[in-house]
């Protein structure tokens, strides 16, 4: 009887350990860099620069209803659900970075970087696949990365992106969505590196400003961007304001609004601003793996507040650094 009891205790212990291990395996932290979130029909859709393996050769997507727990789309047989794959009727052989999802009329669009070129692909469904009728970059005349397409109130589209030349600088041009091309005569540089926070000595590099997101509030344009090299622990996010999509841009003195001193993790930046299902603003971004290692970069989401500054005639933004969400991927359905 004692022997049977001992076996039962051992068996229960093994089962408990196994269940704990399984639970740990069922949920994993997200490792999307340069992330973006699109919202439709009560669901969040997240994609970004993938880590390794299948995720690195295109773009995969995850779905959530609460920003905390993410799963592959319903019915997906593979936990890595690809919306764009290298070689599948879309430009690019390497370096699939920094995607953005948006919708115009009944068509979904995915703009992204590949082979150090900005690219636009399209689909009839949010989950893709995203392909091109003509396999080509947006502007192949020179290297350009980190695309963000903004639609103004009058229906005009603008492509914000990064061009090289003594560093990485933000540029804007009017964008013809139907042709998938910029209007070259409208191309303008947004601004130079001017602020101390944009170039800290923690990691020496040429000037770098990247990862743009643009919104419009009360007839003013707000350009959120990251600065410093992504390997710098001081990689951070600030914003500038203008009366036109082309600028001139006035950098705000309360920048950076997202920095390791605020959220407690190194390399915090390059993401996307969005309004959640609860009506609140959020910023999705990445951070370094830990204090010693840059990659794979971890995904984070943080609430943002906006407050009207009557004297300045514009909104001021602040990150709620004590409310950072650390999203997880659930591998096994409940």
Automatic annotation (TrEMBL):
Q: Which UniProt keywords apply?
A: Carbohydrate metabolism, Glycosidase, Hydrolase, Polysaccharide degradation, Signal, Xylan degradation
Q: Which residues form the signal peptide?
A: 1-23
One Pfam family linked to the record: Glyco_hydro_43
Lineage top rank: taxon: Bacteria
Q: Which GO biological process entries does UniProt record here? A: xylan catabolic process
MF-aspect GO terms: hydrolase activity, hydrolyzing O-glycosyl compounds
Q: Where is the active site?
A: 34, 210
The record, for SUPFAM superfamilies, names: Arabinanase/levansucrase/invertase
Where is the site labelled Important for catalytic activity, responsible for pKa modulation of the active site Glu and correct orientation of both the proton donor and substrate? 146
* Protein name (database record): Glycosyl hydrolases family 43
Output the lineage of the source organism.
Bacteria, Pseudomonadati, Bacteroidota, Sphingobacteriia, Sphingobacteriales
């Amino acid at each position: 009887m004692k022997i049977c009891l001992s076996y039962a205790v051992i068996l229960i212990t093994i089962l408990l350990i196994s269940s704990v291990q399984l639970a740990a395996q069922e949920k994993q932290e997200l490792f999307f860099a340069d992330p973006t979130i699109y919202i439709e029909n009560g669901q969040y859709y997240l994609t970004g620069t993938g880590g390794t393996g299948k995720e690195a050769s295109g773009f995969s997507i995850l779905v959530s209803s609460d920003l905390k727990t993410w799963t592959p789309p319903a019915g997906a047989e593979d936990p890595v659900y690809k919306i764009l794959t290298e070689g599948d009727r879309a430009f690019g052989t390497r370096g699939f970075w920094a995607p953005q999802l948006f919708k115009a009329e009944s068509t979904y669009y995915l703009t992204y970087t590949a082979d150090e070129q900005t690219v636009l692909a399209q689909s009839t469904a949010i989950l893709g696949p995203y392909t091109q009728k003509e396999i080509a970059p947006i502007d192949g005349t020179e290297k350009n990365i980190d695309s963000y397409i903004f639609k103004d109130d009058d229906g005009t589209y603008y492509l914000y992106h990064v061009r090289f030349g003594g560093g990485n600088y933000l540029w804007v041009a009017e964008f013809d969505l139907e042709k998938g091309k910029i209007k070259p005569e409208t191309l303008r540089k947004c601004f130079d590196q001017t602020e101390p926070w944009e170039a800290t000595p923690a990691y020496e590099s040429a000037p770098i400003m990247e990862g743009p997101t643009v919104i419009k509030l009360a007839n003013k344009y707000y350009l959120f961007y990251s600065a410093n090299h992504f390997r710098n622990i001081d990689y951070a996010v600030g914003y500038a304001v203008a009366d036109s999509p082309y600028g001139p841009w006035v950098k705000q003195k309360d920048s950076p609004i997202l920095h390791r001193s605020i959220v407690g993790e190194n390399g915090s930046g390059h993401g996307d601003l969005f309004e959640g299902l609860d009506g609140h603003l959020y910023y999705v971004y990445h951070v370094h793996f830990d204090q010693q290692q840059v990659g794979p970069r971890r995904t984070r989401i943080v609430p943002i507040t906006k407050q009207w500054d009557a004297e300045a005639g514009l909104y001021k933004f602040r990150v709620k650094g004590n409310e950072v969400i650390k999203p997880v991927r659930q591998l096994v359905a409940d």
